[in-house]
Write a structure and sequence with these properties.
Low-confidence stretches: none
Helix content: 40-55%
Largest sheet: 5 strands, antiparallel
Number of strands: 5
Order of helices and strands: HEEEEEH
Distance between the termini: 71 Å
Number of helices: 2
Strand content: 25-35%
Shape: rod-shaped
Oligomer: single chain
Radius of gyration: 23 Å
Mean pLDDT: 88
């Protein structure tokens, strides 16, 4: 192989390795996280205890396509939020232990 060809391969190797690093270190884990969040939000059902991205804690009253009605507080105030605003769903086991 001529010396010029080796220089070209070496100059292309660094950007390719950087792209591979960014894919496996940043892009792929982010896609997996987004997929898990989407599955969690699509599996919502009435009675689930949720926490919104704004920090509101409540129970799911009903689920529609993109909207979720939740109850909050001791007076069971109901309001509607978007599914994308749900941060976490607390596990049933942790609710039973409390």
């Amino acid at each position: 192989m001529p010396a010029g060809g080796a220089a070209i391969i070496q100059s292309l190797l660094v950007p390719i390795l950087l792209l591979a690093f960014f894919y496996f270190a940043i892009i792929r884990p982010n896609k997996n996280r987004e997929k898990k969040l989407s599955e969690m939000r699509n599996a919502l059902k009435a009675g689930d205890k949720i926490i919104t991205i704004g920090g509101i804690v409540g129970r799911v009253a009903s689920v529609k396509e993109d909207d979720v009605n939740i109850e909050v507080g001791s007076d069971r105030t109901r309001f509607t939020i978007k599914k994308w605003a749900i941060s976490t769903v607390e596990e049933k086991e942790s609710l039973e232990n409390k």
